[in-house]
Amino acid sequence: MNMVQQPNDIRDIIEADRAHVWHHLLQHKPLETNDPRIFVEGRGMRLWDATGREFLDALSGGVWTVNVGFGRVSIANAVRDQLVKLNYFANSAGSIAGAEFARKLISKMPGLTRVYYSNSGSEANEKVFKMVRQIAHRHHGGRKYKILYRERDYHGTTIGTLAAAGQPQRREQYGPMPPGFVEVPHCLEYRSQYGAIDNYGERAAEAIEEVILREGPDTIGLLCLEPVTAGGGVIVPPAGYWQKVGEICRKYDILLHIDEVVCGVGRTGMWFGYQNFGIEPDFVTMAKGVASGYAAISCTATTEKIFDLFKDDPEDPMSHFRDISTFGGCVAGPAAALENMRIIEDEGLLDNTLQMGARLIANLEDLSERHAVIGNVRGAGLFCGAELVADRQTKEPVPEKLVQAVIANCAAQGVLIGATNRSLHGLNNTLCLAPALIATEQDIDQITDAIGTALTTVFG
Ligand code: PMP
Fold it and tell me: Tell me, what is one Gene Ontology molecular-function annotation carried by this entry (predicted)?
């Protein structure tokens, strides 16, 4: 049903887009002959495009962002009220919403005490890298500057965070990269590097230790990991992994940074993904779900111990964290984030995420009994992946064009789903699902029914 008013001048808008908008990640050639998709309105889990077509969005705004769903008037009102009162002042001064949200956020993260505001996931991660480099200079005689990142993880689009991308094609043609970034192996048991072993989790963590010993522990300041790898394949680390990772960080005095840009604020059914695994991080970064896309805000949270390392030395003008994020001072961000968190609490969305996530996994497993092309189903909360393989024995990935055909077929049925990132060198064969935390049983079933139909159409 077409519920929204379509703009009268839609051809004019489409031509303006075609002529002037440079879209993310897209090759634009097809847009010369096909119309770009322009969304006009969203409500709850549903979107309407400029032609009036309705879609069920299983991706929370394409990149796992709109956790509380579209059309939240109470967030719009909170932002409006804030903007007319005070829209901005640089974060060298405080704001009421900034202070209140920091306190609220910290109340969900035992052990952490400080929040640094910026406005994108990449930027929040860059802050950690800069803090670690400064700590190395000030407290380790310049050593401990290296940053470890994991194969298949992703941390952002700036040159610094690209240097920490475990998806090598992302870096291609953007070099040279800054030095001091070192990769550790992935932890996807389905594609075990060590054959079929009982203690894959521990073994995958030991692989990190091997890199540390090779590089020299006194040169390494940070281990940066996604709690559940997102675009790299929806990888939930295996049992035993996180405990061992924590031990390794303590043993070699390496700070642990958990990138919660995707998992943060409810996605896995806990406030933060790391809270599923009993980890004690030194840094947690978050962005997408913090304000569900109603305002641009990201946060770098850390401990009092780290904060104290930047304590003012009156004799030394270089002692504090000499960083600024202009738009970290936009007060709409924390105002939206406070209301976003209230909604998650008052509507019981963490519980709903666990229940609907279990249903999504069960439905996908059910599909895998009927479709041999599904080699592996995995996920945490409302964040799930189904890896498509040409052969369950060899686990050979299906070709990318067939993955894209499944996605296109779902879209033709009015359901938006995605896949792992194209920069994974032939391993971009995992269907990705991250519906909003408000999803109902009907929504979940509609998503998996569409996938079932698409798999039958594409693979028979
Ligand atoms: N970290 C992770 C895990 C992400 O998935 C992303 C974005 N997809 C980022 C960081 C970068 O966030 P942004 O695009 O807001 O800079």
Answer: taurine-pyruvate aminotransferase activity
